[in-house]
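Internal QA ticket QA-208
Title: Verify multi-chain structure generation after dependency bump
Assignee: T.L.

Test input:
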Amino acid sequence: MGRPVAIIGSGQTYHGRRFDVTYPELVKEAVDALFEKTGISPDDIEGVVSGTMPSMMEGVALTHFYFAEVLRSVGKPIMKTETCGSTGISLAFTGYYWVASGMADLVLVVGSEKMNEGDSQATMTTVVEPFYQRYFIAGAPGVFSMQCQEWSTRFGIPEEKVREAATRITIDHHNDAFDNPYAHIKKRLTPEEVNNARIITYPIRLWDVCPNSDGACAMIFASEEMVKKYGLKPAWVKGVGYSGEEYWFGDSEKAIWQCAIDAAKQAYNMAGITNPRKELDVAEVYNPFTYQEMLYYECFGFCDFGEACDLVLKGVFSREGELPCDPSGGTLCTNPIGATGLNRVAEAALQVTGQAGDHQIPGAKLSLAHAMGGVDQYNGVMILGSKK
Amino acid sequence: MKKDFYTVSNVIRLPHKYAAGPTFTRFYNGLEEGKIYGTSCPSCKKTFVPARSFCPGCCANLDEWVEVSQEGEVVSWTYTDREFFGMPGKPPVVLALIRLDGTDCDFLHLIGGIDQDDLEKVKSSIKRGTRVRARWNDEKKGHMLDIKCFEPVS
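Actual output:
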């Protein structure tokens, strides 16, 4: 076990189609917001971690070189972390490991994406090898639709109930997004609008899917000494867990999804959590698809397998519920992929430091952040707390 | 009013030629003969399809070749009437994970032989557990798409 580590500040950009700035300018917006908010001097940062999706997304390779100046990394060690959709949470882990190891006291971590400048679905197709599966995945939605079908039929959940619960989730999150100044898609949806929306990949319809967003997120990981020095409200890293499985889709089950279960278990064990639904105050679950959010509730032990739809319909995971999930609107409303997982961590940190503004869960002391990467291949979970 | 700024366009075209290696080559040769080959791991006691050069469980080199069944059960499926990058044909398409009889992983491929213009008809023809069988193209090229699709067994 390493030294105690805390997040002492974050900065996010406004999200959307950001054709008003270049990619480095977008990254600068998040980094500048972070330094302005914390009052920390960039000179005091000892190392920088940067991450994005594969280079094909924006057509510029090694983006951490492209961002060298705006990351304030000139003259400092810089690392790139890239794990597809879980890039953001992996970035947070990299910053955490660096400080926990004792090799640095203050590390800047930045995730970014400018999805609207390229072809995001084609980019994601290149995550898959060219010999066999690349023909058959229909981008990210195809894979996640098949996972959803595997899950709902595995537990015999009626199609209508799954639809009703997914509809509830998307309506809630798009409402929640109005309270998050950085969210991309904010919309008052009606059940009719959601249920009759065009099919992307059955059973996923338009409002079950996250958008293509441009945005960046920056964060500082600090040692206990730096927490004291700057006097900023810390979100302590209480637990981390990351687990993966075989590369090919079809080699492992995705309903009772072992790598999601194991990632959460590792993080809970480290944080001493035995009853996550009771002990956690808020969770920022990676939810690029409505259905997947419910699957995670089950894999993370928020409820039993096959039970998530019923509990969603009872409001257990909504803003006023027992365990509010994604009060920021989540990935479903804002998805700059390389930053998305880090946004989850930033939001979880804002919650336990009482700085989440209009979407603050009152009195939140323990939160969960999560992201998933690859063709349903990896999951990462981080637990944050207001107390060390 | 929001000002519009310039954009700069750029197309990157990078052709690749991938080495398929002996295992994929033998698997493709099998497709050319209308056969689907897998490899088995003696220690994990599992059969994988397509054939693997190494076991995904224990990483042992695999050289126990088996011709696997061309029939199996649908585990999961999806339908789309939208065109996605790299798709082998025009939509609508039905994609599925299929557990071929006697194998220990799901095989990802296309579903055919059903009316795909109407989602309701697709839903009534394809469910978890539906038995399907490989349908081959007349002309085979030693390619993944020599198998045209998997069709419900009537």
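Spot checks passed. Chain B has two helices and eight strands.
Status: verified.
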